[in-house]
Write a structure and sequence with these properties.
This is TetR family transcriptional regulator. The protein has 10 helices and no strands. It is an all-alpha fold.
Amino acid sequence: MTRRSFQRAGEAERRQNLVNATLESISDHGLEGATVRDIAARAGVTGGLIRHYFDGKDQMVQEAYREMLATMTQTAIQAMGAEEGEASDRLRRFIIANLSPPIADPKALSLWAAFISRVRTDEEFGKIHRENYLVILSTVEHMVASLLSQHGSRGENRNARELAIAINGLIDGLWLEASLAGDLFDETRLPDIALTAVEALLGGISLSRNNSREEAQ
């Protein structure tokens, strides 16, 4: 029993190493330039071993896309802190995390740009994209609904979904700015712009940002 569990853990680790190697290869060479041979070399395995874990390059690339999105999303969610915390604090931390490293990062942008063209042409890519988008949207919607309720706007909870869509779109746009031209701004500039805009969308509900510099680090 112990040996079998150890072997399963070893296989999971090797599979994860292959996914990580796929991301590295795509980051360096793009989707077309990332070859199975290069991925195998980066992972320190043979091409034959890769076929034990994946049907081929397409499946490896799909799993790499899933891994990239999941890592970014979980990083932002973990930055929010405990679920029982104040919704305003959690939303503020979520926004700042999305516009700060390691989420806002030139390498992350390069990977996103390589993958995004597949979303409309590859059914599995589209499914992965939608699943992750709905996780983010649900997370933001829950925080927005809590904020509206806490500020006596229970009748406006029907707008939480629309507000979440708008907030997510705002974050996406500023994420591109932070990842593509982050050197033009100090570390709190884009998060502060986002927080001000989100406060306006929320009808003036404050997302206190006295600690935005510390949270961005």
